[in-house]
Amino acid sequence: DIEKLPGVISAVSGYSGGTTEKPDYKNYAAGGHREVVLVTYDTGKVSFENVVESVIKHSDPTDAGGSFYDRGFEYAPAVYYANDAEKIIALNVIDFIDAKKVYAKPLAVLVLPRETFWPAEDYHQNYYKENPVRYAYYRAASGRDAFIKKHWGEKASELTHPVGAIDLTDEKTQRHCWLL
Questions:
Q1: DSSP 3-state helix, strand, coil percentages of the chain (rounded to 5)?
Q2: Residue 36 phi/psi, 5° resolution?
Q3: 75-149-104-157 Cα dihedral, nearest 10 degrees
């Protein structure tokens, strides 16, 4: 879903947060890593607030134990910040959405400092594009699509934070962040 956000240039699956070097799909969780996505985006078209809001709206941000069928800390909702300004922004977006009472439970999105990003294996990239039937089945069977529709309906893709409201670009036109 993050790649559908206008201004997103790329989304790379990977691992972060653990203690082992060069984790892979077989050992990342044992090394304390989480599955994450490195997002590169055009700051003239989308803001850090927008990216955080989109991730919250297209996941179950209330489940600290994982994400739909995927269970465990390595799948729990999280947003990663590069500096204090991004941390404050992420916390504000979470508070803003939480205050709307869209969900029956409070948001459980962790806000964590960025650590080394390790790209996942090639077969783990663009899974939804490479395996569209399996991915569509997963989204429906896991309840993800129904959950998003129940809470946001057609407004899941609408963003409430205007681009440029807070400038974190330091005169850059592209910015990176990673999310779970």
A1: 35, 20, 45
A2: -135, 170
A3: 70
Look up residue 157 and give its two tokens. 């893709």
DSSP tag of 141: H
Q: How far apart, in Å, do the first and last CA atoms of the chain sit?
A: 12
| % of the chain residues with pLDDT over 90 | 55
User: Mind listing the pLDDT tens digit for each residue in 85-107?
Assistant: 999 999 999 999 999 899 999 99
In terms of pTM, does the model score above 0.70? yes
Q: Which stretches of the chain are DSSP H helices?
A: 48-57, 84-99, 127-130, 132-142, 144-152
Q: Label residues 31-60 b or e (16+ Cβ within 10 Å = b).
A: bebbbbbbbebebeebbbbbbbbbbbbbbb
